[in-house]
């Protein structure tokens, strides 16, 4: 409820209200003003999740490595396949690079929310999503919006 349903419902209601009662310019203005708050909310969630999983991360580093290895292989593998396809299509570098970065994204933000909702904050699924965030975030490219 807290991580998926409530934010989704609030977003749907807000967008519907702004779209119905205001111009598209006002809707875009609201989205620009709300974006920093959504980033702060995401960072807060990740910080809390790391805080709750810190004991497990420090106590079981081998588990973290076992989770991280296939995630890294998947991330770099998808990037390589996508970049090869982009080169085969003769896409310019400034389109191919960001497109491949976005393609490799696993959207761990949503995975974190779902894992906590279904399995609990201290579950193995939540731990796996924390490791996923560790793998995904360093590959984020400044200025690329997903």
Describe this structure in words.
- The chain has helices at residues 5-21, 24-59, 61-88, 93-104, 108-119, 124-136.
- It is mainly α and 146 residues long.
- α5 packs antiparallel against α6.
Structure in a nutshell:
This protein has six helices and no strands.
Low confidence ranges: 141-146
Task: Specify the structural class.
Answer: mainly alpha
Mean pLDDT: 79
N→C terminal distance: 24 Å
Radius of gyration: 18 Å
Task: Describe the SSE topology.
Layout: H1 5-21, H2 24-59, H3 61-88, H4 93-104, H5 108-119, H6 124-136
Helix pairs in contact: 2-6, 3-4, 3-6, 5-6
Task: Record keyword descriptors for this entry.
mainly alpha; disordered C terminus; flat; 146 residues
């Amino acid at each position: 409820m807290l991580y998926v349903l409530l934010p989704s419902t609030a977003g749907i209601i807000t967008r519907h209200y702004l779209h119905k009662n205001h111009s598209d310019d006002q809707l875009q203005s609201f989205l620009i003003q709300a974006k920093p708050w959504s980033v702060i909310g995401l960072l807060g969630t990740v910080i809390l999740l790391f805080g709750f999983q810190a004991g497990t991360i420090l106590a079981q580093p081998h588990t973290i490595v076992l989770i991280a290895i296939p995630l890294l292989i998947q991330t770099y593998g998808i990037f390589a396949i996508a970049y090869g396809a982009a080169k085969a299509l003769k896409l310019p570098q400034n389109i191919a690079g960001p497109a491949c970065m976005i393609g490799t994204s696993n959207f761990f933000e949503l995975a974190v929310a779902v894992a906590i909702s279904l399995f609990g904050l201290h579950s193995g699924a939540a731990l796996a999503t924390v490791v996923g965030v560790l793998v995904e975030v360093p590959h984020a490219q400044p200025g690329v919006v997903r």
